[in-house]
Amino acid sequence: MDACNALIVDDEADIRELIEMTLLPLGVTCLLAENLNEARALLKRQPFNFCITDLRLPDGSGLELVAHIQKHYASLPVAVITAHGNVESAVEALKLGAFDFVSKPFELAVLRSMVSTALRLNRSGEGHPGDNRPVLLGQSSIMAEVRALITKLARSQAPIMINGESGTGKELAARLIHLSGPRADKLFVPVNCGAIPEHLMESEFFGYKKGSFTGATQDKGGLFQAAQGGTLFLDEVAELPAHMQVKLLRAIQERAVRAVGAQVEVSTDVRILSATHKNLTALVQDGVFRQDLFYRLNVIQMRMPSLREHPEDIPELAASILVRLSQDIGDAPPKLAPTALAALRTYPFPGNIRELENILERAFTLCEGDVIQAGDLLLPARESTSPHSSPASAPASESVPVELLRDLSAPVDFEPKTVPYPSAPVVSDLEGYLESLEKAAIMRALEATRYNKTAAAEKLGISFRALRYRLKKLGLD
């Protein structure tokens, strides 16, 4: 690590000395100040790579210094030292722009980890080997604001709550915050809080020790351990049951977790990002979501706009989606006819960008030639997306092409060979059953045409590109 300077502001000499001795092995030269006036004077005199300040100072509050640094030295990460349990002051500091906080009495390992993370901030924009980060598309003013906010939030370790309708790209935004910050070289661990069975949540989040329950034949780390040094993304956080809300709150406050069956807690260094499409404020008022956890997760709020709010970005988004779909089968991307593009521009998209992806995926397999016509989009009837209907209740776009399903339900003019139609009880869910029917029909057509894909596509009544895409999608290529 290159030599760097840190400004340490505390009115207690032993605290200043302890921090200085802790940071010395990191190659950090510490300049010490007892109060706000000394700190401001040192900031004018020379540049710093990092600042740590106590909240209680003889001539004012450390919050004043945080605000001063944000105004005059915006690129300087500043952390605050708070009294144990003083959550409100820590949250206020984070909202003012503090990089992070540490509570007294602080563990030296936690302090070193925090400073090491902060010192990586200035190098976080340089990229990483093999960096292939995703891109948040859209040239509209509202998306430009979102990108600017992501860049700003990446410089902080404050918990962030990302709000927005389903399909707006909340996980993508969280991933970009992670990749644009000092934790980019560590793991980004996403978890859907609504997808974990309630009785497994504690062991999934915190891990377990061998013998702690039936089937625990060895120690296993949880999500917090997997995200150590990186970012834990809690998607659909509103789905957390009450008992897990309590345990998660403690893990965030104490920065430590206890595995199921363990006797002691283990310190963690994890940034928490959360997301939901629900109104958490209303859930707090209804007593469904804990208010104290809400305040810890909702330190900074970020909203992802619905696609209805920036329809001017639809052409760019659609072009990117079609390129990606075409790359999957090594084909040239089709174009959107003007009528198709006009139809997309006026469609309200209750499912947002995810629905746009589904619509284009279906049109990609149905269109003939190199142009997607308006009829290929098969947009749902407008009545189902009226202003009075909830986006969450809108029907999802089909994942299996409608034309292919129509063919699957009709008699076929050749006898099955090695791959018979499965009976319904073989697959318990409808999606899996339909996929099995689709695979069976495609294999029958290929066998009947001696694996001539062009002839098989004709027999199935779909385009050659549609067949190639379905083969890739179903893992039959």
Q: Explain this structure to me?
A:
This protein is α/β, with parallel strands linked by helices and 477 residues long. It has four domains: 4-122, Response regulator (Rossmann fold, 3-Layer(aba) Sandwich); 144-303, P-loop containing nucleotide triphosphate hydrolases (Rossmann fold); 308-383 and 390-399, Helicase, Ruva Protein, domain 3 (Orthogonal Bundle); 400-477, Arc Repressor Mutant, subunit A (Orthogonal Bundle), CATH 1.10.10.60. Helix content is 42%, strand content 13%. The chain contains 20 helices and 16 strands. It has helices spanning 13-23, 36-45, 62-72, 87-96, 108-119, 141-153, 170-179, 201-206, 223-226, 242-254, 280-285, 291-297, 314-329, 338-346, 352-366, 374-377, 402-408, 430-448, 453-460, 464-473, and strands at 4-9, 28-33, 50-54, 56-57, 60-61, 78-82, 100-103, 160-163, 188-192, 231-235, 256-257, 266-267, 271-276, 300-303, 335-336, 371-372. Helix 1 (13-23) links the parallel strand 1 and strand 2 (28-33). Helix 13 packs across helix 15 (352-366), helix 13 crosses helix 20 and helix 19 packs across helix 20 (464-473). The longest helix has 19 residues, at 430-448. The two termini are 49 Å apart. Residues 125-130 and 384-428 have low confidence and may be disordered.
Strand order of the largest sheet: 2-1-3-6-7
Question: End-to-end distance, in Å?
Answer: 49 Å
What is the assembly state of the chains in this entry? single chain
The top level CATH class name of the largest domain = Alpha Beta
Topology:
Blueprint: E1 4-9, H1 13-23, E2 28-33, H2 36-45, E3 50-54, E4 56-57, E5 60-61, H3 62-72, E6 78-82, H4 87-96, E7 100-103, H5 108-119, H6 141-153, E8 160-163, H7 170-179, E9 188-192, H8 201-206, H9 223-226, E10 231-235, H10 242-254, E11 256-257, E12 266-267, E13 271-276, H11 280-285, H12 291-297, E14 300-303, H13 314-329, E15 335-336, H14 338-346, H15 352-366, E16 371-372, H16 374-377, H17 402-408, H18 430-448, H19 453-460, H20 464-473
Parallel strand pairs: 1-2, 1-3, 3-6, 6-7, 8-13, 8-14, 9-10, 10-13, 15-16
Antiparallel strand pairs: 4-5, 11-12
Helix pairs in contact: 3-4, 13-15, 13-20, 18-19, 19-20
